[in-house]
Design brief:
alpha/beta; 5-stranded mixed β-sheet; 431 residues; Helix Hairpins; Heat Shock Protein 90
């Protein structure tokens, strides 16, 4: 991928005066501004030009709305990397905003446009876009280098010394690639962390303004102020989710013997207030000792129990059952890397909540994947993706089984560990 040196921005609005206004606001930044006066015109431009850095698009346009246009744009794989900022007149339609985010919008700007705010938001996304491309370019260069070395190893019959030398180089390239992946994860962490400070100020000053103007402003202005505070709170939760996901396997600690009975007991103790408040019934059977990272195991079970608490059915007492069993590798057809000589532990976390259709059983483990709106059930859509990341790191497998209104069962499969240390641990437990 060639790095974008020239910033190209596609501006879509059915009104010529709005197009001219946005172009004037951004003209001193040396951006290349391409204008389209309709969703259809924007799609025609994108058929021939795919190297846009950002799209600024009006929501309400005759014929094809901005949200409909965004949906068509993101149907093309080559255009999915382009962030979209919707520009719209303020309204009270929360569902419209959520639909915009679902279609891939990264932000909203309300009319009348604040020039300083527009320039700031455009600048932030352009800088993030450039840094992302730099990291991706570096990864592709390393992959190309690895591919070249692998081809040399396969096609040339070299002396043993030469083959060993190439293998050393290949290992070095792989180390560099891993380092680049860690750098990308660290970038996500740092970028998300840096975004928290301006959000904190928005929330702080928003609350201060609301308190100071209490009873002095009309209901419409009060609603707008509440919307600002709500949107900032929502963005804060998303950023915290990104931070949690990006560091879920970063500096998490080393592998050791982990007694899941102790882990789950501590998790339930930490969640005691919420469990008591919801009058939930949590039962725990005997759980195994595994080879793992304690902090990540705590995070795994906390996310799963929290998931069960969140998606309880109205009018039904929340019930959660956690138990484990030992199974043989031959029973695990869904685990491609299973070892025939190794047994496995299965830990089941079962609830009686709202459940879901099995067609979503794989999708729910995706980052930011939600089956319900934020209005219905709060959350970032990151918890289950973190669970999968943790289980994968432990050489295991996680899946979900469910039916609508029949609860859900999350099945975690982890390899059994048999070591002298484990035997000593089990003997000490029996004393």
């Amino acid at each position: 991928m060639k790095l974008i040196d020239e910033v190209k921005i596609l501006v879509v609005d059915d009104r010529e005066d709005n197009l001219l206004s946005i172009e004037t606001i951004l003209e001193d930044k040396n951006y290349q501004i391409i204008k389209a006066n309709s969703g259809l015109a924007a799609l025609k431009i994108l058929l021939n030009q795919e190297d846009f850095t950002l799209i600024l698009m009006d929501v309400k346009m005759p014929g094809m709305s901005g949200i409909e246009t965004a949906e068509l744009i993101y149907q093309r794989e080559k255009l999915k990397h382009i962030p979209i900022i919707f520009i719209t007149a303020f309204d009270k339609d929360e569902e419209g905003m959520f639909e915009g985010y679902r279609m891939g919008a990264v932000d909203f700007i309300y009319k009348p446009i604040n020039p300083q705010l527009l320039r700031y938001k455009v600048g932030v996304f352009i800088e993030l876009f450039r840094q992302r491309n730099q990291l991706i370019d570096h990864q592709e260069q390393l992959r190309a280098s690895n591919a070249s070395l692998e081809q040399e190893v396969q096609e040339r019959k070299l002396s043993e010394h030469k083959v060993q030398e190439l293998n050393v180089q290949l290992v070095q390239r792989n180390l560099e690639l891993n380092a680049s992946n860690e750098e990308l994860a660290q970038f996500a962490y740092v970028a998300s962390h840096d975004l928290q400070e301006p959000l904190r100020k928005i929330l702080l000053y928003g609350d201060m303004v609301k308190q100071k103007l209490y009873g002095q402003i009309d209901s419409d202005s009060d609603f707008r102020l509440d919307k600002i505070i709500y949107s900032a709170s929502r963005m804060r939760d998303l950023i915290r989710g990104i931070l949690q996901f990006s560091r879920s396997d970063y500096d998490a600690g080393s592998f050791q013997l982990v007694d899941l009975n102790q882990i789950v007991s501590q998790v339930l103790s930490d969640m005691e207030e919420e469990i008591t408040e919801k009058q939930a019934l949590v039962s725990v059977g005997q759980l195994p000792v595994i080879w793992g990272v304690p902090v990540q195991m705590s995070q795994l079970f906390q996310n799963l129990v929290n998931n069960a608490m969140k998606f309880g059915r109205n009018g039904h007492r929340i019930e959660v059952d956690i138990h484990g069993k030992l199974i043989e590798a031959d029973e695990l057809l869904e685990l491609p890397d299973r070892k025939p000589e190794t047994n496995y532990h299965q830990i089941l976390v079962k609830d009686n909540g709202i459940g879901f259709k099995m067609e979503h059983a794989n999708a729910i483990f995706g980052v930011f994947k939600r089956l319900h709106t934020y209005r219905e059930y709060e959350g970032t859509g990151i918890g289950l993706s973190i669970c999968k990341k943790i289980v994968d790191r432990h050489g295991g497998f996680i899946k979900a089984e469910s039916q609508l209104n029949q609860g859900a069962t999350f099945i975690i499969t982890l390899p059994e560990v048999k070591t002298k240390a484990l035997v000593a641990h089990q003997e000490s437990e029996q004393l």
